Every structure is written in C-alpha cells, then in structure tokens.
Amino acid sequence: MAQGGEHASIWTVPERQGRGPRPAYSRAQITEAAVRIADAEGLEAASMRRIAADLGTGAMSLYRYVPSRDDLVELMVDHVLLETGVPERPSGDWRADLTLVAENTRRVWRAHPWLAALWRPRATFGPNRLRLLEFAFGALDVGIPIDEIFVLLDMLNGYVERVVRGEIEWSREARQSGMTPERWMMENAGHVRELLGTGRYPMFERIVLDARLPHMSEEEQFRYGLDRVLDCIGRALPALGAPPSDPPPSDPPPA
Fold this sequence. Notes:
The structure is a single chain. α4 (69-81) crosses α6. This protein starts with 26 loop residues before the first helix and ends in a 16-residue tail after the last helix. The chain has 2 domains: 24-67, Homeodomain-like (Arc Repressor Mutant, subunit A, Orthogonal Bundle), CATH 1.10.10; 81-239, Tetracycline Repressor, domain 2 (Orthogonal Bundle), CATH 1.10.357.10. By secondary structure, it is mostly helical. The protein is flat, with a radius of gyration of 24 Å. It has helices at residues 27-41, 48-55, 59-62, 69-81, 94-111, 127-139, 146-177, 181-187, 189-198, 202-210, 218-239.
C-alpha cells in the first residue's frame, strides 16, 4: 500500500470488494472497450465518458471498477500484451524464443500504435506482462548471471522499440501528408545528387550507391537487424559463462 491508503497498483485491488449486488460490468469489458476506442481513434479518445457511452452506462459508475485513468492505462497495456502469444515456457532454443518475442512484440505495437506513447520502464506488473517477462528471461536462463540477462534483453528490446517507433511514425506521416519513404526519396533525389557531386561525403555516397537495407521492405529490414542483434547475443553468451551450444548435426559421410 502507498502512503495515505492509496493502492500502488490496480492488480492489488480486488475487482469485487465486499458484499453487495453482482457487478453489472467487469474490468475486462471496460478494458476491451477502451482498447477498441484507442485503436480506432487514439488513446485520448478512450476517456471514461466515452467508454461509458460505448457500454451504455454512466461514467461515474465505471470508477467502481477502475479507480483512475492510470489504472485504465495499465489494464489496457496488459490486455494487449496477451496478443504476444508466448508459450508458458521457453522451448530451450533461446534464439527461436527471442525471435518469437521480438516479432510478436512488433506485431502488437503495430496493431496498437498508442502503445508507443505508454511504454515506460516503471510500469506495474500485470499477469500478461509477467508472462512475457518470464518467457523472455527464461529463454536466456542458460547459466549466466541475471544482470547479464537484463543487459542482453535490454539490447533486444531497445532494437525492437526503436524500429517499431520509426515504423509507426512513418505510417502516421504517410496518412497525414502522403509522404511515403519512396516519395521522400524521390523528392530528395536532386539534393542527393548535388551532395554526391561534391565528393565530400564518401560514407554517404556508399549508403546511397551500395546499401541494400533502405530498399528492403519493413519486414526484411526488421529481420535483418534482428538477426544481427541475436548474433551479438549469441557471441556474448559463452563469454558470460553459458555452456556452448550444441553444434548442428553434420552430414553423414558418403557411402
């Protein structure tokens, strides 16, 4: 409990307190309505008044179930994290498991762009967030210190977050202005030619002339970078005390 009798987390407050009539609604119903509205119109639209109208009730009645706006946000975030769809336990193949976490987290963020504005390091621990945490940390529980797992997952999560925030921003700008990445490249082509003609920017010239990454699809770009991050984790594990991975099976000798 926090000072003044305030609760520290919505997860510490029973949904039904004491005796009395059966609740007309559930937190799950309220949360699902909030997510629907936020997906369609943005997070700010998901007010208690709007949710109440969606459910056909008065706004004040919802505070019996969800005491504050912060509580509602916590419920919304945890609700959509269920969509990451991670299993109860890691498979034993850390690379496959972290690939699943990264790709599914990206998918959830893209499906719910309002998440990008809510993600914060001190969020409380709801059941779906804890399930994701247990799976991701468990995937790297291969004989290395817990602090090293923190650092490696922070590197992975940082990559996923940076890429998806950029994808969401490009998508938002494209909707508002029509400025797609392809159109942006076309409109800047003349300036780029001028820069190349100066001969003063050799690395920029290599990027323009040789780099394949800017011309890949978003999915290809994401997986290209993800593979590099996972390669770095794989090289770090033995140095941190993890046993070597089993070598891939070799082809049988010719008869």
